[in-house]
């Protein structure tokens, strides 16, 4: 359920096969613009999320779970700690450790997260090795976001067949979507994999807000890219959206209408990426700033080359996501704004 879409079972096998001690991390550093589902799950289902992490720790052979909580969610710490304490009698051999993230966007990226947990500045590292093989303190480390642990417990309670019975088209299962923007009922909704944006808006968002018509949308937050309304009938899964140059990511769906200017919207998101860049690699450090300048001047000729530099040259998902956003805008909107 994370933005990278890495298979859970594969991660568990890698961590379990590694030499201990092993670690489990709940990545609650929800920093993607448009994403707020993890916070709601922590507020309303803390015990279920923590139980899912305990199950994962038992399976991979870990004795310590690190809860890496976004600075903006730090007010949830007392309730989470109380929920963990209530679970202690049933899981006496597995402990929780509570850590507050560095606060920047990139601190939620898994290699940056490890750097922070080890007491260093939040800067991403090259992969491989992957954290599942050599993560926290060089040991095998299982890292999932909040929603993944939620579904671990839910699937154990209801059964795998129940989970597989949901979903549409080629993709099975359920997921939480953060739905925001020009809809009547923004919020977190549970919907089948493969649902289309049009179906999501009508069945969970109450339709478009009064006076607004669908013009564009981001299927996976700022780093997932942007698409025009004409593609709202495509399934919200990577198999369908990948050929369009975008990603579903963590399911942060942002809905735009005719009242929103795509180039202004993308420029504002790119300014966010430029501000949040750690500055470690030149393609991201200079590329995000160049994109802000180009979009501000209405320059469109060099977007494709700049997007490729960001996507191919950046170390981590921040620069790569900025490149995806720019490339998708260039592909689907540049001609309309030129």
Overview of the structural elements:
This protein is α/β, with parallel strands linked by helices and 338 residues long. It folds into 3 domains: 8-158, 3-Layer(aba) Sandwich (Rossmann fold), CATH 3.40.50.11540; 174-257, Ubiquitin-like (UB roll); 262-337, NADH-ubiquinone oxidoreductase 51kDa subunit, iron-sulphur binding domain (de novo design (two linked rop proteins), Up-down Bundle), CATH 1.20.1440.230. Helices cover 42% and strands 16% of the residues. Strands 6-5-9-7-8 form a 5-stranded mixed sheet. A 4-stranded parallel sheet has the order 3-2-1-4, with helices on both faces. The two termini are 37 Å apart. 47% of the residues are buried. The mean pLDDT is 92.
Tags for this model:
single chain; 338 residues; alpha/beta; Rossmann fold; Ubiquitin-like (UB roll); de novo design (two linked rop proteins); 3 domains; 5-stranded mixed beta sheet; globular
What is this entry, summarized?
The chain has 338 residues and is α/β, with parallel strands linked by helices.
Q: SSE layout and pairings?
A:
Layout: H1 8-17, E1 22-28, H2 37-44, H3 46-60, E2 62-69, H4 77-87, E3 95-100, H5 110-117, E4 141-145, H6 146-158, H7 160-164, E5 174-181, E6 187-192, H8 197-203, E7 214-218, E8 227-228, H9 238-241, E9 252-257, H10 262-276, H11 282-297, H12 303-313, H13 317-332, H14 334-337
Parallel strand pairs: 1-2, 1-4, 2-3, 5-9
Antiparallel strand pairs: 5-6, 7-8, 7-9
Helix pairs in contact: 3-4, 3-6, 10-11, 10-13, 11-12, 11-13, 12-13
